[in-house]
Amino acid sequence: MLRRFTWFQYKETEVLDVEALNNTRRADRSVLFFNRVPKVGSQTFMELLRRLSMRNGFSFNRDRVQRVETIRLAPIEQLQLARMVSSYSEPSVYIKHVCFTNFTEFNLPQPIYINIVRDPVERVISWYYYVRAPWYYVERKQIFPDLPLPDPNWLKKDFESCVLKADRECRYLEGEIHEGIGDHRRQTLFFCGHSEKCTPFNTVGALERAKMAVEKHYAVVGVLEDVNTTLTVLENYIPRFFRGATDVYYDEVNAFTRINRNFFKPPVSEEVKDMVRGNFTREIEFYQFCKQRLYKQLRALKLTKNTYETNSL
């Protein structure tokens, strides 16, 4: 199978250093923490890690399915989470939908942080139809039988109509703190952290805090739209956990691409997507920031390899 890389624009004069771009070396323990963002292909990457755990010999751990998923935690809950993850023997991986948790604030050893991002508008559309998919409610009812069924009119509401009619669910207002339906529109929230300053939607403050966390703490933030580059960077920057990831992924590519795929999601016009993008400016900026960083990491690998080959002649 042909594996084609998409190269991002970079400055020819920019000095790129693999060591400077790799936060894996800053981790205090060989424990990988994947605080996965919803609807970015995280189910696929979670399954990839499960299979790699058997191949590369590390412990695989994930959060249990919850009735109500809590993304932002109180300080005592953050401490409990950090203690639990710190208790895992090395090497281990832990996976959970949760905001970035800084273990060093609790005087606990820092793990290796990773995550994945996705185009914010495509992601919010995916979430919109995910929570309306019939199989989603079948699975939820099987686990939590007493859950009430949603309003049929809400289930039938399509995304384009929701946007064009300025429905409360699809207005995406800047500075909004609580949208009331848990649609996870704030991708930055998973990097910004648990602070109340991270909750207003599409704000400069949340954006800058999220960028800072990525630069300072995350070994790799992959991009769903470029799996090839993501896997290559993961393999080279975190080899203890991702050795052979590309081969495992493509050996089982059909199985992976079927995970969590929603066949009930209709197409959305570019005109409507453009309307929504107007309200996602800083979320889009954060996505582009993560994308640029990933390609810098890839470019640094290429430069390092070329230098090694030249010096070996």
From TrEMBL:
Primary localization: Golgi
Keywords from the named record: Glycoprotein, Golgi apparatus, Membrane, Signal-anchor, Transferase, Transmembrane, Transmembrane helix
GO cellular component labels: Golgi membrane
GO molecular function terms listed in the Swiss-Prot or TrEMBL record: sulfotransferase activity
Gene3D superfamilies for this protein: P-loop containing nucleotide triphosphate hydrolases
Keyword Heme: no
Pfam families for the chain: Sulfotransfer_2
Localization in the cell: Golgi apparatus membrane
Highest taxon of the lineage: Eukaryota
Topology term for the membrane: Single-pass type II membrane protein
Stored PANTHER family: HEPARAN SULFATE 2-O-SULFOTRANSFERASE (PTHR12129), HEPARAN SULFATE 2-O-SULFOTRANSFERASE PIPE (PTHR12129:SF20)
Family the UniProt entry places it in: Belongs to the sulfotransferase 3 family.
UniProt protein name: Heparan sulfate 2-O-sulfotransferase pipe
